[in-house]
Design goal:
With 274 residues, this protein is mainly α. The protein is built from twelve helices and three strands. The chain is 65% helix and 3% strand. The protein has a three-stranded antiparallel sheet. Bound molecules: the ligand CCS(=O)(=O)c1ccc([C@@H](NC(=O)Cc2ccccc2)C(=O)Nc2ccc(C(O)(C(F)(F)F)C(F)(F)F)cc2)cc1.
Amino acid sequence: AGEINSMADFFSFFSSNIETPSSTAHEIDCLTANIVKSHRETCQYRVEELQALRWKVFSREEVLAYQSKSVEEMWQRCAYRLTDSIQYVVEFAKRIDGFLELSQNDQIVLLKGGSLEVVLVRMCRSFNPDNGTVFFEGKFGGTEIFKSLGCNDLIASIFEFSQSLCALHLSEQEVALFTAVVLLNPERACLQEKEKVARLHSHVDVTFKNTLQRSHRDTVLSKLSQKTLQLKSLCSLHIDRLRLFLELRPLLAHSLFPPLYHELFTDGPDAPLE
Ligand SMILES: CCS(=O)(=O)c1ccc([C@@H](NC(=O)Cc2ccccc2)C(=O)Nc2ccc(C(O)(C(F)(F)F)C(F)(F)F)cc2)cc1
């Protein structure tokens, strides 16, 4: 142990031995309120809006029209839609207390690694489990409208994932906390201040677990950890398919996709998120 021969030693000894105080119940309640508020402000469509639109299902003709579109056009439409949703996730992240205090690099690492995962979790709110349809370009359609993408396995897995997530009947508060936990993942590669992200993550994780336990939904907790693994593989499958698509069309890539989509999902030269 360091000898205390001077005031400097005393302060260095003393400061290195203060336990970082575990967050108080008050801090946790503030964080919960902040995350739920941030989600509500950036969720893109409210659940009530999406449910009120469920009756709007694509007609046979509209389905055929989608199926006769080129691969390029369908990829472009999905990329634009996803980029739209990702912008809202970026805004959600920026409103989480502590996120903007992370280094710019770490903010980008967390968004590159987690934004699509958060979109796919949020997307389950626009999924109708009764007829297996998702809200896309103004109406509800099944996997058949994405046929010309040429990724039926990816689409099928995304729909299955949405179906299984719907079965958990997550409340908006649970979606807010779960997506914050997914986003603030300290295990993302290349984080500069891993401990800082880990502290933020643990605060949200504790909050999320407390919320579920208080509402006697502990079983959901065990299912969600398995969902997180599925989410990881789903997103890497999505990104692999995108890369495959882009590699076959190097010229199209830049003209076809919005810049943010490109920055997040290809390893092109990194540019800071606007
Ligand atoms: C994610 C947040 S939320 O639940 O609020 C929310 C849900 C659905 C959409 C939906 N909004 C539109 O369509 C916009 C609009 C409306 C009217 C005319 C034209 C345009 C939308 O974007 N769906 C949608 C489904 C599926 C996809 C897949 O790419 C994926 F992989 F994500 F699931 C696809 F592969 F299934 F296509 C990608 C996108 C937006 C937000």
